[in-house]
Amino acid sequence: MAAELAAAAAGTIFFFDELHALLAAGPAGGAHEITLLLKKALLGGEVRCIASSTPEEYALARKKARWLDRCFVAVDVQPPTESQTIKILQSSKERFEKFHGVQYAEDTLAAAVAYSNRHIKDRFLPDKALDLIDDAGALVKMQRAKAALPDELVECGKRIKLIVHRMENAIAAHEFEKARFYSEEERKERETLAQLQQKYNVLSPPATVTPEHVAEVLARWTGVPVAAIREEGPSNPVVEKEQRSMEPPRQPKKKKSP
């Protein structure tokens, strides 16, 4: 890590996701060493970086690390609007499609944004909408997998899922060597999966994730019946904005004279 920081410092802006988690590392372990290295590099003006955190978590981090005030300027970033979130989902959907082996229709993305914003109040866009389409893709993948498949394919899929889980844990623990190892293992297993799919001729077109799948996942999250979610219907922020722009401006109400 030290060598990477030193080699890439010139002209590079580093990004640290969830800075508070990094700074909360204990007195031992790789994460603590990274914290000390980061502190020294920032205070010495050797590197530049952008970090993300919630206001509450950043405030707690500042109590433990007062030197943050000398290195960072806090910028309040508001959640994106629904129409902006749809664009974010559009740019991210290819990654989910590849991972789950599915495809998302445009109205599915709009439904995920509208449903999540309407029914999940303790989280913000775009995260809750991204998690919703992720789980909806997993649901469709699972439903498709229930069809009779050869044991070899099933076991390979399980191995990939386990490797991805371990890789995500390694990244969260800042164990980057382990993460690289699991990334390579995932690549090998996916090559094996492709060979098995060709062997058993299961390379059929990907299943489509619909707004109904999104509503089903949200119902599991919140306990709100699927029928109630679908009854309201997904709004289209872009259309609604255009419709509002076409409405005549409202005249201010005249004050009644005493």
Helices and strands, with pairings:
Layout: H1 2-8, E1 13-16, H2 19-23, H3 30-43, E2 48-51, H4 55-64, H5 68-71, H6 82-100, E3 102-104, H7 106-119, H8 127-145, H9 151-172, H10 176-199, E4 207-209, H11 211-222, H12 226-232, H13 237-246
Parallel strand pairs: 1-2, 3-4
Helix pairs in contact: 6-7, 6-8, 7-8, 7-11, 8-11, 9-10
Shape: globular
Fraction in helix: 55-70%
Oligomeric assembly: single chain
Total count of strands: 4
Provide the CATH top-level class of the largest domain. Mainly Alpha
Please give the order of strands in the largest beta sheet. Answer: 1-2
- At CATH level 2, the architecture of the largest domain is Orthogonal Bundle
List the domain count as a whole number.
2
Tally of DSSP helical segments: 13
Flag low-confidence runs: 26-30, 236-248
Structural class: mainly alpha
Strand content: 5-15%
Termini separation comes to: 74 Å
Q: What is the C-alpha radius of gyration, as a whole number of Å?
A: 24 Å
Could you state the order of secondary-structure elements as H and E? Answer: HEHHEHHHEHHHHEHHH
Could you say what the CATH topology of the largest domain is called?
A: Helicase, Ruva Protein, domain 3
Question: What's the mean pLDDT score?
Answer: 82
The major beta sheet can be summarized as: 2 strands, parallel
List the defining traits of the structure above:
258 residues, mainly alpha, Helicase, Ruva Protein, domain 3, two-stranded parallel ribbon, two-stranded parallel sheet
